[in-house]
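Residues determine shape. Take a concrete instance:
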Amino acid sequence: MTDRQQEILQILIKEYVKRAEPISSSFLAEKCGFDCSPATLRAEMMALEKNGYLQQPHTSAGRIPTDKAYRFFVDKLLREKEKESALPEKDRRVIDRTIEESPRQPHALSAGLARTISNLTNDFAISGIADTNEFYRMGFSNILESPEFEEEDDLFGFGSIFDEFENYFEQLFGQVGPEQLTVYIGRENPNKKARKETIMVARYPLPEGYEGISAVIGPMRMVYDRNLALLKYITKKMNELN
């Protein structure tokens, strides 16, 4: 992939996350400051589509990212050093307050983190105690507001994550090392019913010697840089606490 194609892909993903509608070459030319013509952008987007990074919905002239595109984007973010700007200072203060004001007890901290993660990301959040399979779920109403889940079948797929998390969380947790993040995108998800979702999982220590886990779950069209930075920050603070 050329440098220009990488830039186009990254900007297209960010714009699609914001707008929730296909992105056209004319939009990129007009709004995103590319120093080339719409025709050149269109040719580059066709090349990205040919290589499996973009797809074109039947009713639109624009393109949307594929699972492969999101994987490229996330891998690049994971390789980069965390950018302070990815997680606003006000969000860091909310996380700090959640941890500081919660009793030093695994259940209380897990419940508080689930609520805070859901509120800050507008996605679905799960936090809990990995050793005992006890989890707190927050933010299902956030999912109901996402255009990706307007169809009943798509909402059913997401509902299977909500209902069956305990059944397959070990597959998620087992691949996350201490102080690490793992991201499952679309068809990578262990739950075969959830093929349009992204699951981000972080692992950290809890008081009393327990292992904690937090997950952000939402449509593939999520704010990856912010959500990754948020889970990294929580992992850092929980390690400092313990």
About this structure: The first strand starts at residue 54 and ends at 55. Strands lie at 54-55, 64-65, 124-129, 134-138, 181-185, 197-205, 211-219.
